[in-house]
Amino acid sequence: MSPRPTPPVPPLRRLADHSRPRVILAEDDEVLRDTLVEELLSRGYEVRLASNGVELTDAVIEAVQGRAPVPDAIVSDVRMPGATGLEVLELLRRYDWRVPVVLTTAFPEHELHVEALRLGASEVLEKPLDLERFRRVVAEAVS
Amino acid sequence: MKLAFQLATVVGLGAFAVLAVDFAFTVHRERAVIEAEMRADHERLLGLIAPQVEVALVNAGVDGARAAVPRVPDPSVWLSVEPRREATRLEGWLVSRRPLGSSGFDLVAAESTVSEEAFLTGSLVQRGLTSLAIAVVIALLAWRFSTRVVSRRVEGLVQQLRDVGAGRDPGPLPAMGRDELATLARETNAMTLELRATREALEEEHQARLRAVEQLRHADRLTTVGRLATGLAHELGTPLSVIAIKADRLREDERASPGMKAQALVIRDRVEFIRTLVRRVLQFGRPLPPMRRHVDLEALARDVVAMVTPLATKRGVTVHVHSVEPAVCLPVDPHQLEQVFSNLLVNAFLASAPGQRVTLALGRTRREVGGVAVDCVLVTVRDEGVGMSDDVRAHVFEPFFTTRAVGEGTGLGLSVCWGIARDHGGWLEVESAPGKGSTFSLVLPSVPPEEVTRESTSHAARAAAATAG
């Protein structure tokens, strides 16, 4: 058995020219996605959008490979077509990539909380989202 | 034919036969006695007259001898001198002979037995009638005796068996004495008892099965309703997020007028209401697993009672706590059970009129869980209030079922309690009738199906859930 190839790990520090915090936002509901983007942009975040699990995975891989800027935080829905937020979280862990991940979910089940915390999610937000709390959690994640 | 009649007939005929045989012997003996007496008389008479007849026979021949025979006043006796002959029987006559020396002639005395026979016949008839009367009396006595001793007891047995066969529950038969009927009665009593025990066991089993089926059906219905409600709650999460955030942003918008901001606040407030509702539905559908630790249920109940007593006082209702056993300790989630107790108590208060009492009682019981009888803890909350119709009772644990006015309750309280009871391996029961108050019972198996092992993980999850909320 050959050892698993180690993927290139980008530096975890913020880039010098990077003044605005970068967030990848993954949400399959278009209206909620637009609402959250609007909110994040108005708070001065640079946002990269993903409308499903596949796009989120692509965005993460691009960042890992250095083809895209490294995000300061990922805000992702749990249930999405293509891949779930948990699977992406697992992918990040496999790359040992400690970017803070905030999960949002309308399925606040016990097992989900346990699994998310085990995989190192920094927060699980239950829907319906509370704006105050959303702001605070994202701000804490990028800091 | 009735047994008593048969017995009486047999006894009567038997008695008659015995008496008849006895009588036959008696008649036979009497006849012999009479004959012997008559023969003795003849001997005496012949002995007296023989000498003179013998002299006459020698002197005057046969005719002279016959003439010498004296006349006897009894017309039934006839005396004569006849040639000697072998003794012969003559029907209706008793004949005695005495030889007259060696002359070849006998002195003969013949007496009619007709009057003796008539006497014997009369005696025969009289004693026959007496025997018959005695036999009849004996038969009657036998009939009476067998009626009392046999027939009534047999009829009692028959009635008993008929009752048992028809499913009635007769009391035990009297079984005094050592005869066969008493033994039969004892055996019948034993069989009746055994049948009753069997029947009761069957009935109990049937009831238990019915309850189990009803419970399963109920659980199934609640699960379906819960799944539906949960699905709806999930679907609501995303659009509600949008509405809440938009409203919040509108409130913060500097360009918005105070009127618009006020409207946004109303929207926000209503979203909050729906959020609470959704959370409770989700809790019913998929509540957090209980975080169990050993808790003294009575202490917990008293805490809750103390907490809700002001509401009871306000409504003029008194609350009592009964505990049959000093310590009922179970591994439970105290917060969840608090929720159940307070829900049941508050419901009881709301159903009660001023002056009525609400009783929370703790006890132990044995119930069947999955076909096995297990020890359970029983917590009942009883009120004397308005009670429920069967229809209400059938739906009382379903989410959104409420009998209160719109806005006074979500109808989720009892369904959440039901979910909590289920997650503790137990269930809720309700007994109620209109006007007769209601009794809600929380039944918790003393040995929970899963042991208290996931406490640490549950703690983490609860902490996460609490912060996420």
Overview of this structure, please?
The complex is a heterodimer of chains A (143) and B (469). Chain A is an alpha/beta fold. Chain A contains five helices and five strands. Chain A has helices spanning 30-42, 53-64, 85-94, 110-118, 131-142, and strands spanning 22-26, 46-50, 73-77, 101-105, 123-126. Chain A has a five-stranded parallel sheet, sandwiched between helices. In chain A, helix 2 (53-64) packs parallel to helix 3 (85-94). The longest helix of chain A is centred in the first third of the chain and has 13 residues, at 30-42. By secondary structure, chain B is of the alpha+beta class. Chain B has nine helices and ten strands. In chain B, the strands form three sheets. In chain B, strands 5-7-8-10-9 form a five-stranded mixed sheet. In chain B, strand 7 and strand 8 form a beta hairpin. In chain B, helix 1 runs antiparallel to helix 2, helix 3 packs antiparallel against helix 4 (258-285) and helix 4 runs parallel beside helix 8 (413-423). Chain B is rod-shaped. Chain B starts with a helix and ends with a helix. The A-B interface holds A 29, 31-32, 35-36, 38-39, 42, 104-110, 113-114, 116-117, 123-132, 134 and B 233-246, 248-249, 271, 274-275, 278-279, 282, 286, 288-289, 457-458, 460-461, 464-465, 467-469.
Protein traits:
heterodimer, A: alpha/beta, five-stranded parallel beta sheet, 5 helices, 39% helix, B: 469 residues, alpha+beta, three-stranded antiparallel beta sheet, 9 helices, 16% strand
